[in-house]
């Protein structure tokens, strides 16, 4: 998906950054592939984080996310309450294990890649960044 407007949900980040996102802990596999690609390609120069969006977060939900992600990557995790499911409406995941990656530039999203990256998808994403 190209050139979308960022949903009005407080992320706690400003400027340009990359979101490796999902709608719950079950998308950790899709998200993990994106994470490894970014970590290898941009080890110091890109502001990126793992964001999990849900309508409400329970302590159990939070514990599950942190249990599935390696401890060394916990600092990159943000659990965002999206009570109106604005991000889910934008992404339209086909199932609960679907992750996504997007570039945010102020209030615009120049590119959103849904699902695990393909080689061509990664090249397009990296070039867009």
Q: Structural class given helices, strands, pairing?
A: alpha/beta
By DSSP (H or I, 4+ residues per run), the number of helices equals 4
- Proportion in β-strands: 25-35%
The global form is globular
Order of helices and strands: EEHEHEHEEH
Terminus-to-terminus distance: 14 Å
Helix content: 25-40%
Low-confidence stretches: none
Number of strands: 6
The average pLDDT value, as a whole number, equals 86
Care to give the gist of this entry?
The chain is of the alpha/beta class and 129 residues long.
Outline the secondary-structure elements.
Blueprint (H helix, E strand, L loop, with lengths): L1 E4 L10 E7 L5 H14 L6 E7 L4 H10 L8 E5 L4 H6 L8 E6 L2 E7 L4 H10 L1
Structure description:
The protein has helices spanning 28-41, 59-68, 86-91, 119-128, and strands at residues 2-5, 16-22, 48-54, 77-81, 100-105, 108-114. It contains four helices and six strands; from the N terminus they run ββαβαβαββα. It starts with a strand and ends with a helix. The model has no long low-confidence stretch (mean pLDDT 86). It has one domain (17-95, 117-128). The protein is α/β, with parallel strands linked by helices and 129 residues long. β3, α2 (59-68) and β4 form a beta-alpha-beta unit. Helix content is 31%, strand content 28%. A six-stranded mixed beta sheet has the order 1-6-5-2-3-4.
């Amino acid at each position: 998906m190209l050139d979308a407007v960022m949903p009005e949900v407080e992320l706690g980040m400003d400027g340009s950054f990359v979101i490796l996102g999902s709608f719950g802990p079950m998308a950790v596999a899709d998200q993990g592939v994106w994470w490894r690609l970014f970590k290898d390609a941009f080890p110091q120069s890109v502001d990126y984080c793992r964001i999990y969006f849900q309508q409400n977060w329970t302590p159990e939900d939070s514990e599950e996310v942190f249990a599935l992600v390696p401890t060394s990557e916990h600092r990159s995790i943000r659990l965002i309450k999206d009570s109106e499911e604005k991000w889910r409406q934008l992404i339209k995941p086909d199932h609960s294990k679907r992750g996504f990656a997007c570039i945010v530039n102020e209030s615009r999203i120049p590119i959103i890649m849904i699902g695990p990256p393909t080689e061509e998808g990664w090249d397009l994403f990296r070039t867009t960044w």
